[in-house]
Fold this sequence. Notes:
By secondary structure, the protein is mainly alpha-helical.
Amino acid sequence: MNKQQRNRRRWLVAISLPLLSIIACLYGVLYGSISIPLSEVIPILSGQEPSAYRTILIDLRLPRVMIGWLVGACLATAGALLQGVMKNPLADPGIIGVSAGGGITAMITMVMLPQLSYLLPITAFLGAFVTAVLIYLLAWDRGASPVKIILAGVAVNALLGALTNGIMVIYSDRVQAVLPWLSGGLNGRSWYHLEFMAPYAVCGLILSLLAIKPANLLLLGDDAAQLLGQRVEMNRLLIILLSAFLAGAAVSVAGLVGFVGLVVPHMIRLMIGEDYRFLLPFSMIGGGTLVVFADTVARSWFGSIELPVGILLAVIGAPFFLFLLKRKGRFGLS
């Protein structure tokens, strides 16, 4: 792909992706087990007249769509940062154990300490953050190479998964209420959850834009980045912690939603290249769009059954990931 083709694709994505995101959000607001006519939306939002759809739109659909967009944006941004910094196409909050850290602390809160369930978002967030620090410390040996971080993350992920399964076996009588959360879902999310996660999510997304320059320089390799005046280990640690911050914000309200941080950055990378000036904001918008659309499908296409969005994303993401593997081999990294 030459420079002119890449610039043309970037302009195309810059125009079409926000438009798709608006369409997905509008679709999420209007459709579900009960469809809301488009003509009702503006009168409801402006409060011009009472409507039978007001509670559905204002109290249920609107916060759910906004939370879904922020969750997708956080996970896709975290995945894009980790894949570039670690130079590994499998780097993702779910695979290296960050999401599992949030998951096990949330599981402990819901199953073993139900009286503290109101602290669930905070415990999930702290679990993800502490796990990221632990992985980096385990990988440290006069420096923490991307390969060591990935291996440490996989090991920690396996350990946390085993502990989670052990808690489910020991407290089998209480697990039923936890299963939808472990599958990843937005059912029952409200303005309370949005008010909790939005400050963290927005702060993390803004900080991620400040990571564009060091992320681009780290793509050149550690030696080249050092020659350009970068503190490689410090930048890598800060970007990993930022990714954990973003993943923790998402996990705290949506549970273990997978594949967003793995697939979305690859989709964007195939279209516009690796430059983080474009890859990061486009991944952000793409992740939010995907989660909102998938959540709407999960709650409106299966009759009275509402699937957790994490299950649907896994069904969509796994085949696409295999398609990328067959088509690109190295997923366009390097």
